[in-house]
From TrEMBL:
<dbReference type="GO" id="GO:0140571">
    <property type="term" value="F:transmembrane ascorbate ferrireductase activity"/>
</dbReference>
<keyword id="KW-0472">Membrane</keyword>
<dbReference type="InterPro" id="IPR006593">
    <property type="entry name" value="Cyt_b561/ferric_Rdtase_TM"/>
</dbReference>
<protein>
    <recommendedName>
        <fullName>Plasma membrane ascorbate-dependent reductase CYBRD1</fullName>
        <ecNumber>7.2.1.3</ecNumber>
    </recommendedName>
</protein>
<keyword id="KW-0349">Heme</keyword>
<feature type="compositionally biased region" description="Basic and acidic residues">
    <location>
        <begin position="192"/>
        <end position="220"/>
    </location>
</feature>
<keyword id="KW-0560">Oxidoreductase</keyword>
<dbReference type="GO" id="GO:0016324">
    <property type="term" value="C:apical plasma membrane"/>
</dbReference>
<keyword id="KW-1003">Cell membrane</keyword>
<keyword id="KW-0249">Electron transport</keyword>
<dbReference type="Pfam" id="PF03188">
    <property type="entry name" value="Cytochrom_B561"/>
</dbReference>
<dbReference type="GO" id="GO:0046872">
    <property type="term" value="F:metal ion binding"/>
</dbReference>
<feature type="transmembrane region" description="Helical">
    <location>
        <begin position="134"/>
        <end position="155"/>
    </location>
</feature>
<keyword id="KW-0408">Iron</keyword>
<keyword id="KW-0813">Transport</keyword>
<feature type="transmembrane region" description="Helical">
    <location>
        <begin position="20"/>
        <end position="41"/>
    </location>
</feature>
<feature type="transmembrane region" description="Helical">
    <location>
        <begin position="94"/>
        <end position="114"/>
    </location>
</feature>
Amino acid sequence: AIIVYRLPWTWKCSKLLMKFIHAGLNTIAMILAIVSMVAVFEFHNASNIPNMYSLHSWIGLTAVIFYSLQLFLGFAVFLLPFAPVPLREALMPIHVYSGLTIFATVIATALMGITEKLIFSLKNPAYSTSPPEATFVNCLGLLLVIFGVLILWMASRPHWKRPPEENAKLLRPIGGTPEGTEEESTVTDGSNTDKSDLRINSEAARKNLKLDEAGQRSTM
């Protein structure tokens, strides 16, 4: 869901479609998170295990709460057409930063969870003796770290950022008809006019400089 805007082959798709895909993937992830939390609480209650006593559970519940708020505000502000544009522009940096923060928090929660499970479950042989189960889960943890680093790296690359909607028209496949708007052509014409004026002014300045140098030589 995070990198759906960062994939170059999706840049020619409409931004509205990518918004729906982004929101849909996040909604699926939210449903899976809720199902997982219900399963954990039911397992703890059935096994007479205390709830919410570890740092893993504290951070995990915090991540789920903030993720639900992030999803709700994302729907209300960026997907529905009611929010004004200045509000969207103001909240977009916060939305991006909080999304990356929640993602990193979820990775940390998963690492703490598998470590906690290994310590409590592996008794004979013990976790400290590095049995095959411990090696397998430790490798899984390393893969989670690599996965998180890759996602954060892709999300932080400026050249992977989705171009503005006007520039995205130029990225259409062969057969498309990218056309500039009247405003763009006006801006281009204005810039060409400014460049021609600069050339005329620079040529005039060179002529004046030569005349001044000639006058100084004659005076000397």
